[in-house]
Amino acid sequence: MKILYSIVLILITVYASAQETVSLGAGYTQDVYYQLNSKEKTPVSNSNWTLAFATSAFDVSIRVNHLLVPHVYAIDGDSAAFATINLNSVSGTDEYFNSDESWEYGALNMPATGSQFDYGWGSYDPGSHNVNGSRIFVLEFANGDYKKVFIKKKSVANVYGFMVANLDNSEFVNQSFSGSTFGDRMFYYYDASSNTLLNREPVTDNWDLLFCRYYGLQPNEQYYPVAGVLQHKAVKVIQLDNINVQMITPDLYMDSTYSENISSIGYDWKTLNAQFQYEMVGNRAYIVKAQDNNVYSIVFNSFGGSANGNIVFNQVQLEATSVNTVLNDMNVYVLNNPVNDILQVVIDATATAPVQLDLMNLNGQVLSNKQNVITPGIHLQSFDVTALSQGIYLLRIVKDGAVMSMKVVKM
Question: Could you tell me which CATH class the domain 324-410 is placed in?
Answer without folding.
Answer: mainly beta
